[in-house]
Amino acid sequence: MIRRLLNRSRAAVSTQPAELVSGRALIWLIASFALLLVPQWDRLPIWLMASCAVLAGWRWLAQSGRVRLPGRWMRTGIMLVLVAVYIATVQGRFTVETAASFFVLAVGLKWLETRSVRDFYVLFFILVYLATVNFLFHQEIHWSVINLVGVALLLVGLQVVNAPDIPGAMKSGWRRLGMMLVKTLPIVVLLFVFFPRMAPLWSVPLVSGEARTGISDTMTPGDISSLAQSSERAFRVTFGGEIPAYRDRYWRGLILDRLVGDTWQQGFGQPFRRPGRVAVDGGVGELETDQYDVLMEPTDQTWAFALEDSAAVSDNVKRTDEGLFRFDRPADTAVRYRMELLNDGTSGTLAAGPESTRRYLQLPSSGNPRARSYGEELSARYDDPRAIVQQLLSRFREQEYFYTLRPPAMPDNGIDTLLFDVKRGFCAHYAGATTFVLRAAGIPARIVVGYQGGEPGADGEYLIVRQYDAHAWVEAWLPGEGWARVDPTAAIAPQRIEFGLREAVAEEGSFLENDWTSPQRYGDMAVLQWASLQLDRMNYHWQRWVVGYQGQSQMDLMSRLPGGIGMRELGYITAGIVGVALLLAGLITAWQYRRVESRDPYGRVVSRWHRLCDRSGVPVRYGETPSQLAARLSAAKPAVAGTATAFARMVNKHYYGREPDAGSQGELNKMKRLLATMKRQADRPSTSPSKG
Amino acid sequence: MLKAFRSRWQRWVNQRIPRADQRVFGQRNIFILPTGAGVVFGGLLLIMLITGINYQNSLIYLLTFLLGAVVVAAMHQTHRNLSGLELTVIQAGEGFAGDMIPFRLRAVSPRHDSLAISLACDDSQLNQQHIASGQQEDVTLAIPSYQRGYLQPERILVETRFPFGLFKAWSWLRPVTSGIVYPNPIAAPDVISTVEDGEEQSQARSVDGNDHADIRPWREGDLSQRVQWKRYARTGEMMITDWEGEQGSPHWLDFDAFKGVDRELRLAYLAHQVMERARTNSRFGLNLPGQVIGPDTGAAHANRCLKALAIFGLEQPREGGPLPHGTRANENGKAAGSASFVGEGQA
């Protein structure tokens, strides 16, 4: 009775409160949280960032005892307020951004509840997944480094939480983690290369609610000039052969052929596409001389950009009837595709049937009367459409037309105002006006939007096409020739086509005038240019070889290895790598263990003897002499009495004796023989007492 | 079913880890399994892999593989942290039943640091022991006791979760050396326990405790009058009364003084009396069937008496034998050894 009571009281005492997390561990967690929020800076609302900072700071102050953690009611209150703010700002939209904010909100609220080691682990798991989510949004090398450092901080924090009071925990933690990474790196690399890149198990598009910088599928005259203020990268191109001349770098993206008011649109509705992911990988095989690889930044659109007279090589892009190229799905991440230059002018083969003629001759029923009559006048004056085009271009060339990023506003009859009064505009203005006049003259015409130009990256390895290279030009249908490029900008500002926007607006000084942080703005600072290009090159290769290493690249790489390696073989290889790695690690551990044991051959024999004793039910005692052990062994197993005593005598002689033959090979062999005999005797069933 | 499995497992472990006061932990006797956090982390890695597959994101693959490899490395690290550690029982403590009995253990890790090792036995735990490479570290683990006798801990759990807490590696130390648990002192209802020897009966009731008599075994040259013949007749021991004072006689604490009382209770009464005498620093002797401790004073004497009470009627546990005296396993009546001493001597 008394004992039972005692038991009960002891059991009550032993249910200790959960182990509290130490401040030294907590600081790592907070640091990691702060770091992992950095890649989210442009998608998280300010209020959320601020609340996270306050909540984490609160937790830290509570740890150092300066404030108290909120009680249950207060906590619930804070949670309700923040969730309400969240719901108010989200307004029912479900995008990647709102999902990510919710995730971050959950982490922020968790800070107030982080007391025990268990909570620490919960936060650890969430933050690791936050790092994962970050990779969905940013894949550049510096963001990757930030993410990985964030995870490393977590792993150091875990070590601290598991041994909070060891001296030099931080240093040894980093060293331990570093050793682990170094040791496992080969396996990680092998797994990365060989792990089969399966098709998505189910398709979850990254629906972003954020507008991306880039060309859009409608064009009002001011659109592209605002794009010209951005030095963001649009895409990068590697050529297998020679890079085409600057003036020939027309990257066609989409065609606008329908004028409504002063807005140009795509003529036909775009076909419905199932939501899903774009195939991001165009293969890594050797580039042929007439091929080029495009690594495009995410656009959230299906357009692929290609030079005129190109054909698709990789199968993630398809050619449309208009000679454009499209992905199956919107490019929500960086996409690589491969194209081929044909050089045979096949882009113009499209016959202008009655239907498409009507489509490319469409004009609004009213507006811009002067441009209309000018077109009709040209049509009356010349029979040959080529002559009409020439006439229009020479008008642009000869008269005082200006190419400017600061055109005046032209609200009513914009094309008339541009052509006959103001004569100042950007490429979009002139392309629109040219198409309008040509159509009025009865020539089928359309606006092509894309990019023109591109600057060489570091060492001219590839071309970088930026947003300010965005361009709009015209294609006109000429009988016998098909669609021909007509670029009014080339007539007005040849520098734009020959050298780029920087040269074209040099006098005006308007190049990137609102983009203070862009290195491209400071074109005259060679060091800055060099550094920015080197950084770009690093990112390019990172993007190309690491980030872009997906199914097609893997298959290309595997096809270069002997033996037909398919998906299934990759699976086997992966399993093999994991198995061999585990085996190797086990063997190394075993070897380390043995090595220590086996420094002294006598010691090894003795420890084998000890194991035999252990097995025979005579555990070795601390401080026992060999003779005592032998005596006990003999008592347990009379059969071994003789050999055990002899063996013990030899051990004594070796370690404590002064015989001349101590340490000789013969002595060792004799001991081994004795041990073997002893084992045989011990294992003989008749003498071994039944065990267990 | 589960019970049968558990007992099989216990048998297997006991066979694998025989009793020894010293153990070097190595591959043969270290067990390792993921902790709850480790299992959850495994699930997280799986989710990350699926995220990587679904979003065709190479960097997520990379992070997954990196963390997966680190987890495997951590498993080895956890194992290594324990492996090579040498643990020796250097002193088994003594105490009253119900107290925590301190066991002193010496830990040596010759090859590398063994960090954040925890030792546990029954409910008692010793966390965060760091054993620096090549240094010896003495730790004291208090093991709860429930009844008097030898306290031979069935298993001392040696565990580590370092570095990440995703795996736990553990082994057991099954010491041979037993601690001694004195009976829990209980005051006897009546003071009838002191029995005086022979002729000195009339002077016996000395309450002040200033007796100066001593009882010691017979030596050559001792006068025959001095031999306590009565005692000799009873126990067969030739004891000599050494007189140093005029008044008083040694107080004998006698097992036989409590007629009709359960043996364990008698021992508890005696323990209480020993404690009382020791507190007042009186001179006393202990008379147990089969063992007599002559009158003396001082802590060492009291200790000796308590020890005698503790192990009275019990055998030193055999090594390897399942005799978990005083441990909870016994308390629950599971162990076979318990019957051997509870049963006997009861009225």
Structure description:
- The complex is a heterodimer of chains A (692) and B (347).
- In chain A, 51% of the residues lie in helices and 11% in strands.
- Chain A is α+β, with helices and mostly antiparallel strands.
- In chain A, strand 4 (258-260) and strand 5 (263-265) form a beta hairpin.
- Mean pLDDT of chain A is 82; it is low at 1-17 and 686-692.
- In chain B, a hairpin with a 6-residue loop joins strand 10 and strand 11.
- The longest helix of chain B is centred in the first third of the chain and has 25 residues, at 58-82.
The general outline of chain A is elongated
Number of strands of chain A: 18
In DSSP terms (H or I, runs of 4 or more residues), the helix count of chain B works out at: 8
Which regions of chain B have little confidence, pLDDT < 50, spanning 5+ residues? 193-212, 244-249, 320-347
What kind of sheet is the major sheet of chain A? 6 strands, antiparallel
* Main beta sheet of chain B: 5 strands, antiparallel
Number of domains of chain B: 2
- Report the radius of gyration of chain B as a whole number of Å: 28 Å
Structural class of chain B: alpha+beta
Average of per-residue pLDDT values of chain A: 82
Distance between the termini of chain A: 34 Å
What is the strand content of chain B? Answer: 25-35%
For the secondary structure, the number of strands of chain B is 17
Radius of gyration of chain A, in Å, reads 38 Å
Physical arrangement of strands within the biggest beta sheet of chain B: 2-11-10-6-7
Mean pLDDT of chain B: 78
Oligomer class: heterodimer
What's the helix count of chain A?
A: 24
Backbone shape of chain B? elongated
Uncertain segments of chain A of ≥5 residues (pLDDT<50)?
1-17, 686-692
